[in-house]
Structure formats: C-alpha cells, structure tokens
Amino acid sequence: MEQKMSLEEKATASARPKRLGKNGDGSERHEVIYRAISDAIIKQQLHPGSRLREDALTEVFHISRTGIRKILQRLALEQLVTITPRRGASVTRPTAKEARDVFAARQMVECGLMPEVARHITDQDVDELREMAKREREALKTGEQSTAIKLSAAFHERLAQLSGNATLAAFVGQLCSRSSLILAVYGSAGHLGCESHDHDDLIDYLAEGDGEKAKAFMNHHLQEIEASLSIVEEEAAAPDLHQIFGMTS
Amino acid sequence: MEQKMSLEEKATASARPKRLGKNGDGSERHEVIYRAISDAIIKQQLHPGSRLREDALTEVFHISRTGIRKILQRLALEQLVTITPRRGASVTRPTAKEARDVFAARQMVECGLMPEVARHITDQDVDELREMAKREREALKTGEQSTAIKLSAAFHERLAQLSGNATLAAFVGQLCSRSSLILAVYGSAGHLGCESHDHDDLIDYLAEGDGEKAKAFMNHHLQEIEASLSIVEEEAAAPDLHQIFGMTS
DNA sequence: ATACCTCCTATTGTATACGGATTTTTGTGC
DNA sequence: GCACAAAAATCCGTATACAATAGGAGGTAT
Questions:
Q1: Does the CB of A171 have a partner CB in chain B at under 8 Å?
Q2: pLDDT for the residue A233
Q3: Does B66 touch chain A (CB under 8 A)?
Q4: What CA–CA distance (Å, rounded) separates B191 from B228?
Q5: Nearest chain B Cα distance for residue A114, angstroms
Q6: Which of A69, A109, A167 sits opposite B102 (nearest CB)?
Q7: What is the share, in percent, of chain B residues with pLDDT greater than 70?
Q8: Chain B window 86-105: which residues touch A at a Cβ cutoff of 8 Å?
Q9: B73 beta carbon to strand D: under 7 Å
C-alpha cells in the first residue's frame, strides 16, 4: 500500500491530468513514469518480489495499459523487473549467482575504467563529483537511506560516464541499478552500500590523475561492499513459516 | 525488396499461418520473429539505415502491430535498430564514436574474461568451440559471408558464456551484434571480421589452460579487427556531389 | 532552373475493447 | 487439516479507431 502511495506521489507531480496531453509530450511522459518506477525500485521503496499489476499502474499513473506494458518491458530488459509468462511483472529478486555475477562485472568494468577516467577528468568534473559525494554524505547523515542509495548508484554511474565510453557507462548504470536490488536482498540491515568517505578518497586519486591508484581503490571499494553482503541461496518458494512464526501447534 | 523476401522466408518457416494461434504460443512466436529480424541484421541482410516499417513487418510476419512494436522496442534497447520519434524504426547506423566505444568495451570485457574461461573450460566445451570454428571456416570457404559473420559473433558470445558470468556474457553478446553492424558500415569489402584461423589458435591456448596467453591473443585479435576498419566520420547529409561526379558544368 | 512555401498523404503513437487462457483464490467435502 | 473443484482475477495478444506529425508532392515566385 505505502508503495503505491509513494508512486502516486511522484506521478501527480508530473503526470498532471492535463486530460488530453495526447501526443508530443507523450514520450516524455513515458520517460517520467519509467524513471519514477525505476527510482522507486532503486530506492528500495518497491521491494524485490513486489508485484506490479498493470491495472494498478494504469490507475496510478493515468496512462493506458499499452504505455505501461512498454515501460515494464523496458524495465524487464534491464533486469529490474521480472516478467513471468502469465503472472505479470514483479520487482526482480536477484539470485545469489546473479549477485555474484553483477559484482564480478562491476569489478572488471569499473576498475578497468578508472585509468581512462583519470585521463579525461577535468576540474569541473571533480567539483561535480565532490558535490555528489557531499549530497550523499548528507543524506546518510540525515537518515535518508533511500536517497543515499540512489545517490551512491548515481555517483558510480557518473564516474563511468567520465570515461567517455558511452556504451560501458550505460552498462555500469544497469549494473548499479541491479546492485541496489542486490543490497536490498542480501545486504545486512545496518550496513548499506558504500562507506561515506570512500567516494571522497576516490575523487582525490582521480583529481591527482593517478589512474592506477584509483583502480586499486575501486577494487578494494567494491570488494568491501560485496564482502558486507551475505550472499547465500535463500530458501525456496514455500519457506518455513512454521519456523518463523514459532510453533503452530 | 530482397530484404523482405529473406525475412518472409524465415517467417513462413515457423510462423505458419495457423490462423488462430491466438495465444499460448504467442510469446514463443515473438521470440522467433525477434531472432529472425536480429539475425537478418547481424547477417547484414538488412543494411544499416534500412527502414523497418511496422505495417510491412506485420504483413511479413502475420503479427499484430502491437507485437511488432514490442519487438522493435527490444531491438532498439539493444541498439540494433534506432527508433526516431515520428519516423519509425530503422537499422542502426553506428557512429564512429560508437564504433570505437564498442571495440573498447569488447577489448576490456572479452580479454578480461579469458582467464576465467580458461579456468572453467571443459574438454566438451573445447570440442564445441572447435566445431563452431570449423563451421565458420567452412562458411568462409564456400563464400557464405552472412553465415560466417553470424557464426563469428556466435563464437565470441559462446566464449563469453563459458566464463560462467551470465551478465557479462549477455553484454558481450550485445557488443558482438553491434560489431556486426559496425563491420557493415566501416569494414572494407574484402576483409570481414575475424581471420579464419585466429579462433582455432585461441582455442588452443584455452585448451592448454593458459588464460594469460589467451587474453593476450584476444587482445591482439580484437585490435586487428578494429585496425582493419576505417572508422572515420562520414560526410554529412548532403555531401559534395559536384566533387564526386566530376564538374557539373 | 532553383528555391521556397503550402498542402496532403503515409505512418506512427496512444487509447480502448475483446476473446482467450492461465493463475490464484475461494469454497466445499472428506 | 488436506485435496480437489469452481470461480474470480488478471494477463496476453489482437484488432480498431483516432490524433498528430513528418516528409514529400506540387505549385509559384524570382
């Protein structure tokens, strides 16, 4: 319920019932809705496993099923939602193997990108990154976990963009989104994602132009995150409700 | 014209006009059609820039526009087709920068994967790869360029799959597909993609379990392919026709 | 002959309704 | 409490309608 509320909140902010905003801004509207759902997932306001019924979404966003389906398809291709043949869409619950694969991929790509980033980075970029890291720290301090998670992903994605390779940057973006899901499933409660000062240290290395050091640090950074997770195969479909809720007898 | 013919050929092979195959096999049909179009693009039977009108596709594949649009959306997300707001879909014509980015990405990921592949590979895998390489060589010999191109991409993708990392393998698959388009645009006529014996040599290194050597060879292999291309920004819309066709006066 | 402007056609984007199929849930009996 | 059956909910694919726009055809002026 509260999930729907938060979605509606975002929707009314932009999808003003202009009634006949028929076309022209159409694709724009789709983009906004896509981002709203995507953000809600990344911010862990929509938890893995949550079902996303088409009718409900059409109602919330005041859009036709056609549009919703298009958006859900896109999210499915990005692995943020899972569409099961006749059951509809639900927020993806990454398996343990997927989790390991995603982090292995991040390790390879993000680390490999660091030297390139160090070579391309400008003073202006450094300022922007510092600003992002600062906002992230503040969000953490004020307890806005959702925001902090999203900002952390955005930081890593922006970093990849600075390499100049759009293809790899887009890939990193997807990996970060999925990482957010992984944290939601396998992360321990207290410890969430990146350490607050890690990003600042990383920026320092990049500002110095020391790509190798940045690479090593990123390696360490990602390893630390992955190590903080407890990636174990969870119990199957019908878990032990009896065990969870004491004895039923 | 001939493009449509080849598409129809593939379509009738599977999308038999069962008339009311209404539902059930629906998603399967979609998958088949998706692959048909995807293959046609990768095999360069559909050239970059070719328009893919929805009506034409519905006619060829006997599918509704809704279904076609879904498939086109997917192809667009994989960068094989480009959808321009009110102009519809066309086979993507990669820019020079995209071409460089794709090859840089392949360099990083495929090379980085080689040690892992060498670690996981089994004798059975080696046999399978040898078989694939053989078929590719035969296709080259008999002049089936389209088939050879597709087999080459399939080889690289299968190789990535052997690393055990599904996420990175899927990414490599996309990169290979896009590479095919890049070859179509920037490749010289005679020289197409991988050298015939390169793949066999690579298999040897992997069979020996020498991941580092395989990595170095893959590096060389990809560099060679990229070097064989002439990746230059092509002239804009209205080039110098006067200069091309002698003096007009 | 060329350039520019207007109108028209073709095609896409979106919404909606419908039929069919499957999953999930509810209800009943043992 | 469990198994089975009926019912409801929901999704998937298709067909259709309509609005909106892009690109081209054609005409006109210089």
A1: yes
A2: 78
A3: yes
A4: 7
A5: 12
A6: A167
A7: 81
A8: 97-98, 101-102, 104-105
A9: no
Compute CA distances B61 → A66, A240, B178, whole Å. Answer: 21, 48, 24
Confirm whether any atom of chain D, the nucleic acid strand, is less than 7 Å from CB of A89: yes
What residues are paired with B82 via a beta bridge?
Answer: B90
Q: Within chain B, where are the H helices?
A: 2-14, 26-42, 54-61, 65-77, 96-120, 123-141, 145-161, 166-186, 198-207, 211-228, 241-244
Q: Which of A107-121, A140-154, B148-162 has the lowest mean pLDDT?
A: A140-154
- Residue pair B177/B153 in contact (Cβ under 8 Å)? The answer is yes
Tokens standing for residue A174: 């997807």
Q: For B209-235, what is each residue's pLDDT tens digit?
A: 999 999 999 999 999 999 999 988 765
Q: Which domains does chain B have, with CATH numbers?
A: 2-91 (1.10.10.10), 96-228 (1.20.120.530)
Q: Name residue, tokens 């998958």.
A: B31
Cα–Cα distance, A57 to A51 (Å, whole number): 11
Interface contact flag, A109 B108, Cβ < 8 Å: yes
Give the per-residue pLDDT at A1: 35
Chain C nucleotides reached by a protein CB under 7 Å: 11-17, 19-24
Residue closest to sugar C1' of D21 by CA: B86
Is A180:A153 a contact under the CB 8 Å cutoff?
yes
> End-to-end distance of chain A based on CA atoms, in angstroms?
32
pLDDT at B11: 42
Alpha helices (runs of H) in A187-244, residue ranges in sequence order: 198-207, 211-228, 241-244
Beta bridge partners of B52: B89
What integer best gives the mean pLDDT of chain A?
A: 85
- Pick the closest to residue A183 from A80, A120, A94 (CA basis): A94
Helix (H) or strand (E) holding B89: strand B88-91
